[in-house]
Amino acid sequence: MGCCDVPGLMPIEDALNAMLSRITSISDTLQLPLAEALGFVLAEDILSPINVPPFDNSAMDGYAVRRDELMLNGPLPVAGKSFAGQPFIGHWPAMTCIRIMTGAQIPTGCDAVIMQEQAQVTEQGIQFSVSEVKANANIRPTGDDIQQGDVVLNKGERLTVRDIPMIATLGVSHVRVFRKPKVAFFSTGDELKPLGEPLQTGQIYDSNRYGIKPLIEKFGCEAIDLGIIPDCPTQLTATFEQAQVQADVVVTSGGVSVGEADYTKDILAELGEIGFWKLAIKPGKPFAFGSLNHAWFCGLPGNPVSAVLTLYVLVQPMLAKLAGHTAWQAPLSIPAITRSRFKKSPGRTDYQRGVYSIENGQFVVESTGNQSSGAFRSMSLANCFVVLEQERGHVEAGETVNIQLFNASLY
Ligand code: AMP
Ligand code: MG
């Protein structure tokens, strides 16, 4: 235990290590048409079967010339055309030029393309108004972007909107990817009402599933929504059983604390095993991790900020590992100067919600206000977490803190 550890609360780094050391990646793969592969993790390196571009071609609309003929400064008659997809073929007579368009193949013997803005059509041919022309000017050589055999993307990378057209330029129509992890999730609580129905006394809307589903999908997993389950041990047990046969991971929200209607942990202990419970983080202390017979288990606290935060901070790295997404990186941490006070007591690592901006090249950060774990507005307004170390107390305006910029999953 470190100097500031609280008995019974596991530091977040230990929790992450404990989870990651147990998870092994899914090895099932599938072959997908490229257009359907967005968001999947590559199960193979992508090597280029061709040079890109596959032939020397023009970067400009203009005229293909031989520089030694150009030096003579006389007009050069046009001997033919090379258009994109319709190359010039045949003999190219001396002391002539070839009309050429962007993307068109460079005729054999050509060592420069002169853009049409530097050319004038005269009766005797094309008169060029250029003084010095570099060898291979305006020519995009074969393999300029990618050489045949180059590794363009690596196994373990998750395919982005930028990667798909990259692979398409290689002519690769199908890619081998890992199966996406399946995550079944449900909300627990007698007080929870589905959207669209009026609230009775003591009820609130179930907002957590609306954060959990898109986050799971943005983490590159398949989400299976099992709805709202009341605080009833029989129904909860049945749903756990149903969930674990459908999914690789079961995620619940609520019922994981120490209240009299908190059954999640007992059911986990009965059906599987509790890996750890209760972390030295705020919000999110009651987070539970463990295993069921057929699936991993993550119990998120019910408070909406805690649920999204623990999913993001703890479950996301675990899902990345499960998905074989070895290129995954933790969200970027940057030092910033506080522009407001952050209340904090020592003992837990705080993930307060902040808004960062850049002033004179320096990151600065302000609190989003009410930091209650039930006040979701603090998440909606934020663009970063202000991560305050376990041992730290109140932070005054002007102090330096570490901020963690939200990654793309929260947008
Ligand atoms: P629990 O973890 O079940 O003790 O719940 C903690 C707090 O979060 C309580 O105020 C619950 O009403 C609230 N809560 C639990 N589940 C949800 C949910 N799905 N959506 C919104 N609030 C919730
Ligand atoms: Mg509850």
TrEMBL record:
Cofactor names: Mg(2+)
Swiss-Prot/TrEMBL GO biological process terms: Mo-molybdopterin cofactor biosynthetic process
Catalysed reactions listed for this entry: adenylyl-molybdopterin + molybdate = Mo-molybdopterin + AMP + H(+)
EC number: 2.10.1.1
GO function term, MF aspect, one: metal ion binding
Domain MoaB/Mog: 184-321
Species per Swiss-Prot/TrEMBL record: Vibrio cincinnatiensis DSM 19608
Key words, A-Z: Magnesium, Metal-binding, Molybdenum, Molybdenum cofactor biosynthesis, Transferase
Transferase in keyword set: yes
Name listed for the protein in its UniProt record: Molybdopterin molybdenumtransferase
Pathway noted in the entry: Cofactor biosynthesis; molybdopterin biosynthesis
Function: Catalyzes the insertion of molybdate into adenylated molybdopterin with the concomitant release of AMP.
Superkingdom, taxonomy of origin: Bacteria
GO terms for cellular component: cytosol
Entry's family note: Belongs to the MoeA family.
UniProt-listed SUPFAM superfamilies: MoeA C-terminal domain-like, MoeA N-terminal region -like, Molybdenum cofactor biosynthesis proteins
